[in-house]
Amino acid sequence: KNAQGVSAFIVEKDFPGFSRGKKFEKMGWRGSPTGELIFEDCRVPAENLLGIENKGATVLMSGLNTERVLLAAFSLGLARGAYECALNYAKERIQFGKPIATFQMIQAKLADMAMEIELSRLITYRGAYLADQNKHREMNLTASYAKLYTSEVAMRVTTEAVQILGGYGYMKEFPVERMMRDAKLQTIGGGTSEVQRIIIAREILSRS
Ligand SMILES: Cc1cc2nc3c(=O)[nH]c(=O)nc-3n(C[C@H](O)[C@H](O)[C@H](O)COP(=O)(O)OP(=O)(O)OC[C@H]3O[C@@H](n4cnc5c(N)ncnc54)[C@H](O)[C@@H]3O)c2cc1C
Q: Are residues 49 and 79 in the same domain?
């Protein structure tokens, strides 16, 4: 069967043949449990069909662009949280008799972080605006730009935040190591960075 032969259903948790398997141990995102869902000769009544028969892929895809913009907002929040923590730390931490924020190499990191967060904010708001206006065609490109860019910014910014905090960055006493672990999922969930690049390339090639 290709994707068009698949149908979407609502499966309720007490349906025969449905069970939950083990909960996975994850690198990050521990506040959001992830586990196995097991379907073994699961019986689902026809009335639980979601959308049109054999068009399950369409149901699945219909929410993806909006999901990508939401994920961009997650990434933006992670990046901003890590940046603010690093900025405050850099102003307080004294090394060689001065706050580390006076060192140009730390300043360059903070400048790049601030710039990338600002650009992430703009592309996320642009995606949210298009979603709000139901401009689905335009969203194909913008949602992938937003998801790809902000997730990679979240990874870079959280990693640099750990670096700015030095040894403390690696400790659980400060939130930046968790943010770095959480940020990694952002480049995987909702379509990996590689898949976003495929979508963007396909879209720009089809328009040119
Ligand atoms: C905790 C967790 C929660 C998640 N939640 C969601 C969610 O809510 N919504 C959601 O949409 N996704 C979510 N995901 C992501 C989803 O479950 C998959 O992990 C993701 O879509 C990648 O699929 P895969 O793991 O099968 O990797 P694979 O498809 O096996 O990919 C492995 C690697 O190969 C690359 N790759 C695959 N195909 C190509 C290609 N054609 N060209 C180039 N490179 C390629 C991938 O980018 C990746 O780097 C979540 C993942 C995790 C771990």
A: no
Ligand 1 atom closest to residue 24's alpha carbon, by position in its atom list: 1
User: What's the number of domains the chain is made of?
Assistant: 2
Distance, in Å, from the CA atom of 101 to the CA atom of 94, rounded to the nearest integer, reads 9
163/106 Cα distance (integer angstroms): 9
Distance, CA of 169 to CA of 167 (rounded, Å): 5
Q: Do residues 85 and 174 make contact, with C-beta atoms less than 8 angstroms apart? A: yes
Residue that has been written with the tokens 């992938």 in this structure? 144
pLDDT digits (tens, 9 = 90+) for 89-126: 999 999 999 999 999 999 999 999 999 999 999 999 99
- 69 shares a domain with 7: no
Q: Is the CB of 66 under 6 A from ligand 1?
A: no
Q: Is the CB of 115 under 6 A from ligand 1?
A: no
Beta bridge partners, 20, equal 37
Asked whether residue 69 falls in the same domain as residue 53, the answer is: no
Domain that holds residue 94: 63-207
For residue 53, which of 2, 6, 11 has the smallest C-alpha distance?
6
ipTM given for this complex: 0.96
And the tokens for 55?
């068009």
CB atoms within 10 A of CB 181: 15
